[in-house]
Each structure stands twice: as structure tokens, then as C-alpha cells.
Design a protein that fits this description.
Elements (H helix, E strand, L loop, with lengths): L2 H14 L20 H7 L4 H8 L8 H10 L4 H10 L16 H8 L6 E5 L4 E4 L1 H7 L12 H7 L1 H4 L8 H19 L4 H12 L1 H7 L10 E7 L3 E11 L5 E7 L5 H12 L8
Antiparallel strand pairs: 1-2, 1-5, 3-4, 4-5
Length: 281
């Protein structure tokens, strides 16, 4: 690990960013050029002390997960991310096989969406980013680990948790759409990839998945009219709009209710309640 190189690179990228670049309000009094260390640490969900030690070239070798979080927090481009991995003594992530590095342009749009549910997902259905409204409506999946980050895994291995978010009459359609999306990603990435591993595990765990996989249906379906079911607020109708990256490896999903509708009021109430449920009556 090149500790001095990591320290200098992190410091330079931090100082090159402005608070508004990561969705923060820039105050009138800021003595630090660019972002503060604590702001980077918070965006990367790590302690300020840990990040400070990295910038001072006295920290331990960061894990690949830590590096990926720093790359997202500092809005690094793909080449910059690879450079950081090399400085830290790690192999560069496979650009084709993984899509967990959210591109800066998509992050900038995402950071400005705070009044409606929004999330960034990979072409394989992995939740990469969520704002608080999306977490309150859909569950906090960006903070999940392993296969639980993937919609298909949750849908077919934990149907009781995942499917209750949709009306009963729409669940069969959702199942087919999810499998068709996984097959689309599988076709791009191939069997020797995360997609191939996910398909193999789901075929082993879910008879329903095996049956739907044999249909050979292929489709990427993101833009849609959805009815979502919240445990306390009931049904919420939203339109799902999508913004893809150029290579279509990632998508920003924005869920918007009709103006002046009951759904809009429920989304507003979600913002007040956050992910906390109503107290028992």
C-alpha cells in the first residue's frame, strides 16, 4: 500500500469538491477548501477518525468496501477509482462484472432529489443508493450485505418480506419482470459473473425462479406505473421514471405521485415519519 499516495490523492479530491456537489448546503463561513473531512467520512459512512488517519498516511490498509465507499463519497470517475484501488494495494474491480461504483453524474442528480423517493440500482437489481424517502417506502436495502442487496434474491428467498410491498394481484407480474431483468443482465455479463452466481443460487433455492427462468423471457423494465403498499399508509400510486447511464449498467429511479393526489400526501407524510412506523394504537 502506498500510504503517502493514498493520503495525497484523498486530500486533493476532497479539496476539489464543494458541499453542493454531494447535496450539502454551503454555509457562509467555511475555512476549509472543498469538503471537510467529517463530511467525506459521513458520506462514506465511516468514522471521521478513520478517514483522518488515511489522509495523514497513518491508517491501516482500507478494504475494498471502504475504497468503494470513498470513491462514491468523493465522486470519483471510474479511472480515478481504479487509481485509488491500486494506490491502496488492491486489484482493480472488474468494470464489466460489477456496477457498484455509481458514476458521478448520476450521483449529482440523485443528491438533488430530496422530496420524492429515488434510488440508484445496477442492471442486476442491486440497490446502490437510496434517499430516506425510498428507504421508508421500500426498505433500507443500500445498507444490506451480500445477496440481500439484490431485489431478485429478496423476492424469491424472502417473499413474505418483499412481496407485501405490492398488491397481491400484481405479484405474479412482478415475479416475471424481475426474472426477465436478471436474464437481460445475465446475457450481458455471462455465466462467469455475479449474474451467473445469482442465477445459480436462485435456481438452487427457489422452484418458482427455476420455472420462470425456463420461460427465456428477457427485458429491462424500469419505467412503470406502480402501486406500492406501505404497512401503515396503505396503497401509494407512483410513476417510476428512469435515467440510465450511457452503458445502461446503472439506473436512477424516481418515484413520483400525481400532483395534489392522496399519494402525494402520503409521500409527504413519509418524509415526516421517516422509516419509523406509527406507534401501536
Amino acid at each position: 500500500m502506498n500510504r503517502t499516495g493514498v493520503a495525497e490523492f484523498l486530500r486533493a479530491r476532497r479539496e476539489a469538491l464543494r458541499p453542493e456537489d454531494i447535496g450539502l448546503v454551503s454555509g457562509a463561513r467555511r475555512r476549509t477548501a472543498g469538503l471537510r473531512r467529517e463530511e467525506v467520512a459521513q458520506a462514506a459512512t465511516m468514522s471521521t477518525d478513520y478517514y483522518t488517519r488515511l489522509e495523514q498516511a497513518r491508517g491501516p490498509q482500507p478494504s475494498t468496501q471502504m475504497l468503494a465507499a470513498l470513491a462514491r463519497a468523493l465522486r470519483l470517475g471510474i479511472d480515478e477509482r481504479d487509481y485509488l484501488f491500486r494506490l491502496a494495494g488492491h486489484a482493480v474491480p472488474d468494470r464489466l462484472g460489477r456496477a457498484d461504483h455509481v458514476v458521478p453524474a448520476l450521483q449529482r442528480v440523485f443528491a438533488r432529489l430530496d422530496d420524492t423517493p429515488a434510488l440508484v440500482i445496477s442492471h442486476l437489481g442491486e440497490t446502490l443508493l437510496q434517499n430516506p424517502l425510498a428507504a421508508a417506502l421500500l426498505g433500507d436495502h443500500a445498507g444490506a450485505r451480500g445477496w440481500d442487496r439484490f431485489e431478485a434474491w429478496r423476492w424469491f428467498t424472502r417473499p413474505g418480506d418483499e412481496r407485501r410491498k405490492y398488491p397481491a394481484h400484481d405479484r405474479e407480474r412482478q415475479s416475471r419482470a424481475i426474472v426477465a431483468g436478471v436474464r437481460a443482465a445475465y446475457g450481458v455479463l455471462g455465466p462467469a459473473s455475479t449474474a451467473g452466481e445469482l442465477v445459480a443460487e436462485l435456481q438452487r433455492r427457489s422452484e418458482e425462479f427455476r420455472s420462470l427462468w425456463e420461460r427465456q423471457e428477457v427485458a429491462q423494465r424500469f419505467a412503470d406505473h406502480k402501486v406500492l403498499v406501505h404497512p401503515e399508509l396503505g396503497e401509494i400510486e407512483v410513476d417510476c421514471q428512469v435515467l440510465f447511464t450511457e452503458d445502461r449498467a446503472q439506473a436512477l429511479l424516481v418515484l413520483t405521485p400525481q400532483p395534489r393526489s392522496a399519494a402525494e400526501e402520503k409521500i409527504r407524510l413519509l418524509g415526516v415519519l421517516g422509516s419509523q412506523r406509527f406507534a401501536s394504537r
